[in-house]
């Protein structure tokens, strides 16, 4: 599967812990991530990650383009719902594209754990 990993600043530590916990799952798949999140995942897990630009610099749109080209199978986007984001329209567009193309989207740890459990059971 092609999996996108995105995390707002206040959720980056959560993403690091999540990818460490599920490293055995992620090493079997192609990972894509926005700039800073991707580098943190690489630094802490040594997983291979295709990095796009940082979210505010167009990374969310790049992931969206992969979705619209039907090249993404799962998106895990740990959003910070309590902090205003300067690129909120890009975030909304990414979520909308997941809905349009029926791409499973986890925006919190509970849903992400559930989706990985489901995906693991189908391997």
UniProtKB/TrEMBL annotation:
Transmembrane segments: none annotated. Pfam families: MGS (PF02142). It catalyses: dihydroxyacetone phosphate = methylglyoxal + phosphate. The active site is at residue 60. Catalyzes the formation of methylglyoxal from dihydroxyacetone phosphate. It is an enzyme of class 4 (lyase). Its EC number is 4.2.3.3. One of its GO terms (biological process) is methylglyoxal biosynthetic process. Substrate binds at residues 8, 12, 34-37, 54-55, 87. This is Methylglyoxal synthase. InterPro entries: Methylgl_synth (IPR004363), Methylglyoxal_synth_AS (IPR018148), MGS-like_dom (IPR011607), MGS-like_dom_sf (IPR036914). It comes from the Bacteria. One of its GO terms (molecular function) is methylglyoxal synthase activity. It comes from Vagococcus xieshaowenii. Keywords: Lyase. CDD domains: MGS. The keyword Nucleotide-binding does not apply. PROSITE patterns: METHYLGLYOXAL_SYNTH (PS01335), MGS (PS51855). Residues 1-123 form the MGS-like domain. Belongs to the methylglyoxal synthase family. One of its GO terms (cellular component) is cytosol. The keyword Lyase applies.
């Amino acid at each position: 599967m092609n999996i996108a990993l995105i995390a707002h600043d206040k959720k980056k530590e959560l993403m690091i812990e999540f990818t460490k916990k599920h490293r055995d799952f992620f090493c079997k798949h192609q990972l894509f991530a926005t700039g800073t999140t991707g580098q943190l995942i690489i630094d802490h897990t040594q997983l291979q990650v295709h990095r796009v630009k940082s979210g505010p610099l167009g990374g969310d749109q790049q992931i969206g383009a992969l979705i619209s080209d039907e090249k993404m199978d799962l998106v895990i986007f740990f959003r910070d719902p309590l902090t205003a984001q300067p690129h909120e329209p890009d975030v909304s567009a990414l979520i909308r594209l997941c809905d349009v193309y029926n791409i499973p989207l986890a925006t919190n740890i509970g849903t992400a754990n559930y989706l990985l459990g489901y995906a693991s059971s189908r391997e």
